[in-house]
Amino acid sequence: MHFHTIWNPATSLQLAAVYAGPKVATFHDVPGPHTPAIARAAMAPASELIRRLWLDAVIAVSPVVSEYLAAGRHEVIPNGVSVPEVLPPEGEREAILSLGRLEPRKGVAILLEAAARLGERCPPVWIAGDGPLRRDLERLAHELRLSRVTFFGEVSEEDKWKLLRRAAITVAPALGGESFGIVLLEAMAAGTVPVASDIPGYRHVLAERAEELLVPVGDSLALAHRLAQLTQAGQRRPMQQWGLEHWQAFDWPVIAPRVEAVYRGVMRRN
Predict the structure, then answer these.
(1) Structure pTM?
(2) Of 21, 82, 85, 219, which is least packed with CB atoms within 10 Å of its CB?
(3) What is the H or E stretch that residue 24 is in?
C-alpha cells in the first residue's frame, strides 16, 4: 500500500495501522508562510515516528522535503508528470497564464500587481483555477484597472492543456509551501515558459535555468521586469527549447521504475 497523504489521521494513518502488508509513503508537505510554528517543529519527529510505527520505506519528492526526514532512511524520487499522448494544437503564444487553486499561498495577487506595473505593455492575463480568494482577486484586478484579465474558474484537464498550449508564459508566484512544481513541468511539456517565485521546491525543478526563471518571493516589480523580457519571442525561445527537453526527465515512464524499485525492495524484506 502506497500512501501519499500519510499525515491524514482519518484515513491514511488508520489504514497504515491495520494493513499487514508492505507499506510505502511519499512525503510531499513543506511548511508554508501560514504554517503554525508548532506544526513546523513537529514535522521531523512526527514523520520519523510514523516511519518507525508503520512504514517499510519512505520517499521524498524533493530535497526540501528531505530536510525534515530522517537521514539515510528515505530516498528522493521526484513527482512524475503525465502528459497527453496527443497535445492540443499550438496557439498564439501571447498570454500570461496562472494555473492553480486561488488561495493565499499561491500568490496570484503578485501576478496582478506585476501586470499593473506593465501597463499597456502587458499581454492578456489568464487565471485558471478557483478557490477562496477568487472574489478578492477579481476585485483587485478591477481596482488595478486590468481590462485584459480573464478568470476561467476551475478548468477540466483537457482545457488546462489547451490553455498551456496557447499561453506564452506560465507564472507560479507562490509565497511558499510548495515542495515541488508540477505546474512548471506541465508548462515546459506544453512549450510554455515557466516563471516562478524563488522557493526551494521551484528552484529544484528549474535546475540550471533557475536564475533566469525565478524572481524573489512577493516581488511584483521583479516579476514585471522578468515578464517584460520574456514577452519577446526571441528571449523566450531558448527557454522554451530547454523546457521541452528538461521536463522529460520527470515523465512517468522515467520516474515509475524508480518507485517500482522501492516496492520490490520492500517486498524482498517482508
Answers:
(1) 0.94
(2) 85
(3) strand 24-27
